[in-house]
Each structure stands twice: as C-alpha cells, then as structure tokens.
Design a protein that fits this description.
five-stranded mixed sheet, single chain, five-stranded antiparallel sheet, alpha+beta, 20 strands
C-alpha cells in the first residue's frame, strides 16, 4: 500500500507508484513502527534534486529493495521544502554523524523518531547491505542502537541551542564581515571559495549596502565582478533567463541545472539594486530577464510562484540546455551558427558531457554596437524557439510561502527601479514595459494568494498546490519573508491592508517563536514537537528564519513608527552578531539587515497627487540609503502611517525624511531631498 497519492508535494507524488510501502510524515507512521517493533526509515529530498531521482530509480523503484524496506521498516518520505523543520533536525543529525549533509538524506530512527544512523545517497548494492545490517542490529544489538540514538539527540540538541553570547551588530562587526568576505573572494572567477560554487546573493546584497553606506570601493569591485561572471557563465540561462542552483566548477561554467525560486528571487533583488545604484546595463538586462523568467516560467496564474524547474529532463541532466556546434548550425545556418558558437563558447570538445556545451556569454554584448546587439537578440530568439521543441524539465508546482515572499519583495523593488529608468528612447523600452506589466501582475497575484489561501485563522501555512493549502504549519522564515513582502507591497501600492497583514504576522511570530535572550526558534511553540526544536541562526540557501523575521520587523517599524518592533529586531540581531564577523558567508542576510539598521533606516514619505510621476518620488527611490522605506501618496491616506499629519507645503508636493524616528524639515525640491539622503 502506498499512501502518497493524495500528497500536495510533487516530490511525494513522484514516489506514489513505488513498490515501497511509503508513509507521509505523520503520527500514524510512528505508531505503526511501534506496533510492529521496527525502525523507521526517513528519506528526505525534493523534486528538483538530481541524486534524489537517481536513488529513486536505483532503489525505490526496485521490487527487491521495496520488499526489504517493507519487511523490516516503516518508511517515511519527506519533502524538505514542505517540512523544513523535519529536514533541519535530521540534517543536523546527519552532519553530526557523518561530517557532511545533502540530499537525498537517509535516516534510520527509533519508533519515537530518535535518529541512530544517518547518511545521504547510497548506490543500490550499498543500500541493500545497509538495510540488512540495520535490521540485524535492531534485532540483535538493540541496546547499542538506543545508546547511539541518545547520543545523537544530545548532539543535535546542543547544535540547535539558543541563549548563547550576544553583541550589538555595529559598524566594526559589519566592517569585519566585509573584510572576511574580501579574504574569501575568488579574484579570478568571482564569488567565494571553490567548486561547487553557489550564487552568493545575500552576501552580494550585503556588500552592495556596505559600499553604499561606507563608500568602500573593494566591496563594489567584488560585487560587480561577481555579478558579471555569473551573468556571463553557464549558471545563467543565456536564452530564457534565470539562474541554476549552482555551478559544479569554480568558474560558473557547468551548472547543476535545477532552477529554484528562492535563488532567482534573491538574485533578482541583487541585480535590481545593482542596476539602481550604478545604472549598469548588464545588471539592468539580468534583472529584467530574471523577472521575466519568474513571471513566465515559475508563476502559476491564480496562485503564486511555483518552487523549481527540475535538474533532469527525461532522466538526463542538461538535456534541454546543452548544444554542439553542429546543432547551432542546424538551427541558425552556417554563418550565424559559427557566430553563435563563438559568442556562446560552444566548442567541438564541449564543456559538458558527450561533447555538448553549456551556453556562456564569451563576448560583451551590453555595450556592443546596436547591430551586434540586434544580431545577438535575433540569434537568441531562434535558439530559444528551437530549444522549446526539446523535452522540457518538470516543474515542482507547489507554492512555498517564504519563497513567494522573497519573490514578491524582489518584484516590488524591480517595479520601482524599472519606473526610474523608463524612457521611450530605450531600444528595448517595449520589452521592459512588457516585462514590468507581466511581472507586476504575477507579483500581486502571488501576494493575494498568500493573503487569501496561506493565511488560515491568522496563522500561515507553509505550502499550497492547485489552489489548496497544505497542512504543514508555517515556520519562522515563512512569517519573516511574507511580512517583509507585505511591507514591500504597502510601499509599492500605498494600500494600508498590506501593512495590517504584515503586522499581524509579526505579532504572531513574536508571540509563538520567541526564545530566551532575544533569539527565536524556527518552529512555533504550538507546532508538532520533534526530537529537537530547531533554531538555526545562519543564512544558507535562503535567509534563516531569524534574519527573515528581523528584515520584516525593521521594515514594519520604519513604516509604522512603532519602536517595539525595532527593539525586537535589534535583540534578535544581537544573537547573530557574534557569528557575523567570523562567518560572513553564512550570515549574509543578517548583515544586510544590519546595514539597514545602521543606516537608520531612513523613512521617506512623499505627499503628492502623482505618486507615479512626481520627480520627488523618483529621487527618493533612486537615492534611498540602505534599507530605506519609501511611501508616496496624498496626505493622511487611511492605513498609511508615514503619510499621516504630513500636508502639502504651500500647495506643492513635499518629501518628509526621518532617520531612526528623528525627522528633518520637509523639502519640495529634488536637490534638497537628495542632500538630506546623502
């Protein structure tokens, strides 16, 4: 019997026809293990994971392996994206036992959930031996198994402890974090460290804000070099836009091909801010095309942004994306085919498997002559049309609250910056207009979906699919990311209801997730109790729950003037501060929000009858310091605290600038406003 057929997770549904008697994560599965007196086998993965697919094909689809699992275990399949709390606890156990982690994750546990043996991917022969060995140990060496489990639980409890040392996240610590990143910077290829290389979006956001506050040229140099290296590498889809999860090499050439919503949301935000601050045409193009990718490929009308595109196509990694010189000629003809091979670094030897190449941008096109750019765009269109006839990767179409929050915030900032640079004289003005219209609709659609579907009786749910909300409760990152997104929607639209929704989420988080000393747990106090209560303060693939919550608190405090939210943010950041200076690569979002707090953040209100076209509004957005909030509209708009009691000045539009709840005199000219923001 397989119990996954009604799951909301596409990953679980991929296993619904296995010969394994899978259970979803539920109390009944552990009760069944206790009744049968057998261990629990917990298999954790996600839909876009290449090696998860490999282990499924080799083992979980095999009748012999299925029989062994069914005879001696109760087997539970977990989507790590749907249950990040379960994943966090058992990943900590896996790392404690093996020194490393990853997916697929394979955990053997007692019927009360206590892990006693952990690992990741196992080839079929090894997995069969492991199943037999664990079953024997459970029968013949039960006392030793239980002792090992108790030791693991003690280890993961210590790893997730709260109440450690605290310190203010001040300028010296943020300076130390920037210096730490500079020391790990790959001056040849961009980014940090070696292979595999992940796009360091949160670190780049931090360094960009750090440069803006301090004027540090080194930070900007690192940011610009890394931005260009990623954008011209194979990790970026040179035809359709969007970034893959990571590069298997140190120079961004060959990606692991899955495209994740959270990566692309955070990268959209980074490239948008780089474009805003520098006017860089490459940053503009990447921001525009990443927004288009999110709207075209990951948005599901009537719902929100889906989670990922798969790494594999028909079981083959990269099948959709790689090319040979002959294939380019076949699509483009001899002359354009050779030209495209040179432009995209496609060689006879290949950069990928079987003589195939992943497209990279080997020539500068953003500053090239108009005829070169026109030829490049024409070639891209023809290649993309040909690629669309190939088999396409599957889409994980569940909607994750936190990741949609990240996407909404990024889209809102993109909308604001695109409006700054709108010009009918631009050669791609129509393209930019089309992208902003489609992206804006997707953004609002996602926000409405979160507000109407994921918010149930005042509490967030983690996932939905096909318009129906799932059972897993929202974790701290969901509350933080969605609250920050609703604050961004409030600024973009001037609608008070988004701020009200953000405040409700933050109040719930403060009530149900708080830990001693200003820290926070990742799960609520009334959530399902696992063998440990996770409380990870570090930023990894996505912002930690703590960093995400702080971002929401800081924005909300600036928009409302309610100081208790700022105080909660400062106390939470103080629990992360001891890590920031030493391990900057794993505290990028915390440092990003720290820069906002150190900057003020500025609170900018523009009273105007023309929020879309007033030069004061454009100047406020263009020159906004790190983390500033900007609201524009008529005075005393309902539900918009920053516009309360702020009248026109002599009948003219006026900008009111405050910093840390201390306000300057209102100004009516762009020059005066820019001087106040400097």
């Amino acid at each position: 019997m397989n119990r996954l057929v009604n799951a909301t997770s596409p990953y679980l549904l991929q296993h619904a026809d296995n010969p394994v008697d899978w259970w979803p994560w539920c109390d009944e599965a552990f009760a069944e293990a206790k009744r049968r007196d057998v261990p629990v086998l917990i298999s954790v993965g996600y839909a876009a994971c290449h090696w998860c697919h490999v282990m499924a094909h080799e083992s979980f689809e095999n009748e012999h392996v299925g029989a062994l699992m069914n005879d001696d275990f109760v087997s539970i399949k977990v989507d790590r994206e749907e249950r990040p709390d379960v994943d966090a606890v058992y990943m900590t156990a896996t790392q404690a036992m093996t020194g490393q982690g990853g997916w697929p994750m394979t955990v053997f546990a007692t019927p009360d959930g206590t892990p006693f043996f952990c690992g990741t991917y196992f080839p079929r022969a090894n997995f069969i031996r492991l199943l037999q060995s664990v079953a024997t140990a459970w029968r013949d060496q039960r006392a030793e198994v239980l002792r090992q489990g108790a030791a693991v639980v003690e280890a993961i409890g210590g790893a997730q402890a709260v109440g450690g040392p605290t310190a203010p996240l001040d300028a010296p610590l943020l300076d130390a974090a920037a210096a730490n990143l500079a020391g790990e910077y790959d001056g040849t290829n961009g980014g940090f460290g070696g292979a595999p290389k992940f796009p360091p979006h949160m670190n780049l956001l931090f360094l960009l804000r750090h440069h803006q506050r301090t004027g540090d040229p080194r930070s900007l140099e690192i940011v610009r070099h890394t931005a260009e290296a990623m954008a011209r590498g194979g990790i970026y889809d040179q035809l359709a836009g969007g970034f893959a999860r990571y590069s298997v090499d140190a120079h961004w050439t060959v990606p692991h091909f899955e495209k994740m919503l959270y990566d692309n949301a955070l990268l959209l935000r980074f490239y948008t801010q780089l474009w805003r601050l520098t006017g860089d045409p490459l940053a503009r193009r990447i921001a525009r095309d990443t927004a288009r990718f999110l709207a075209d490929e990951l948005h599901r009308p009537g719902e929100g942004f889906t989670s990922a595109l798969d790494a594999d196509t028909e079981g083959v990694e990269g099948l959709t994306y790689a090319w040979t010189p002959a294939q380019l000629v076949e699509v483009l003809g001899e002359e354009d085919g050779r030209w495209a091979a040179d432009l995209f670094a496609v060689t006879e030897e290949g950069t990928f498997e079987h003589g195939m190449s992943v497209l990279r941008l080997a020539r500068d096109v953003d500053d090239a002559a108009p005829e070169i750019r026109a030829r490049w765009q024409q070639v891209v269109g023809r290649l993309l049309a040909a690629r669309d006839t190939r088999p396409q990767p599957a889409r994980d179409d569940k909607v994750v609250a936190a990741w949609n929050g990240l996407a909404i915030t990024a889209m809102a900032e993109f909308q604001q910056v695109a409006a700054l640079y709108a010009s009918p004289q631009d050669e791609d003005a129509n393209l930019m207009d089309g992208v902003t219209i489609v992206a804006g609709g997707a953004m609002r659609n996602a926000a409405e979906h979160l507000a109407s579907v994921h918010l149930v009786d005042g509490r967030l749910r983690r996932v939905s699919r096909d318009g129906k909300v799932g059972e897993p409760a929202g974790v701290l990152e969901d509350y933080g990311c969605v609250a920050e997104a609703f604050c961004a929607m409030h600024q973009l639209t001037g609608e008070g209801r988004w701020l009200t929704l953000a405040g409700g989420l933050l109040d719930t988080a403060l009530e149900h997730f708080a830990a001693p000393g200003g820290a926070y747990y990742d799960t609520a106090d009334d959530a399902e109790q696992l063998v440990a209560r996770p409380a990870d303060p570090t930023d990894n693939a996505t912002p930690s729950g703590r960093s995400a919550l702080v971002a929401g608190l800081v924005a909300y405090a600036a928009l409302t003037g309610e100081t208790r939210y700022r105080e909660a943010a400062e106390a939470a950041l103080a629990t992360v501060a001891p890590i920031v200076g030493r391990h900057a690569r794993f505290t990028g979002y915390a440092a990003t929000v720290g820069e906002a707090l150190l900057s003020g953040p500025y609170e900018i209100a523009v009273v105007t009858g023309d929020p879309a076209g007033d030069p004061l509004v454009a100047a406020a957005h263009r020159h906004a310091p790190p983390g500033a909030v900007v609201v524009a509209g008529a005075p005393d708009q309902p539900g918009v605290p920053l516009l309360a009691d702020r009248p026109f000045v002599d009948g003219r539009s006026a900008a009111y600038v405050c910093r840390g709840f201390v306000c300057q005199r209102p100004v009516t000219s762009v020059e005066e406003l820019v001087a106040q923001l400097g």
